[in-house]
Automatic annotation (TrEMBL):
Originating gene: trxA
Record keyword Disulfide bond present: yes
Protein name: Thioredoxin
Protein species of origin: Angustibacter luteus
Residues of the Thioredoxin domain: 1-104
InterPro entries reported in the protein's UniProt record: Thioredoxin (IPR005746), Thioredoxin-like_sf (IPR036249), Thioredoxin_CS (IPR017937), Thioredoxin_domain (IPR013766)
Amino acid sequence: MATTALTPQTHDETVQDGIVLIDFWAEWCGPCRQFGPVFETVSEANPDAKFVKVDTESEPELAAQYGVSSIPMLVIYRDGIPVFGQPGALPQPALEDLLKQVRDLDMDAVKQQYAQQVAAAEAQASGRKPANDPTSF
């Protein structure tokens, strides 16, 4: 599968199912130009995953949404949950290994942990303690 462009309009639908790798890049970025062919090659060898690219110059709102401050940056979702995010270009073997690790995740455990993180963040935002906090009354 070739890579496709990710836009704010296609973002939510794109990341909701399966494994999705997002490459944040820009034309002027040397490391991005080095990583691009690696990303493309791995995408062609793994048709079960979605490989999408975000041009940070064309889609600054997506870059801001993810807090991208260094490119290239790779973000990986599995079943709608972000499971990896890191700046820097990866060599092909490292990207392939990372994809294998994402495939091997125990998604029941990941979903449980993610739900706890979301609940804690929501509680913190509202100024209350999470229900499972032993110091809450």
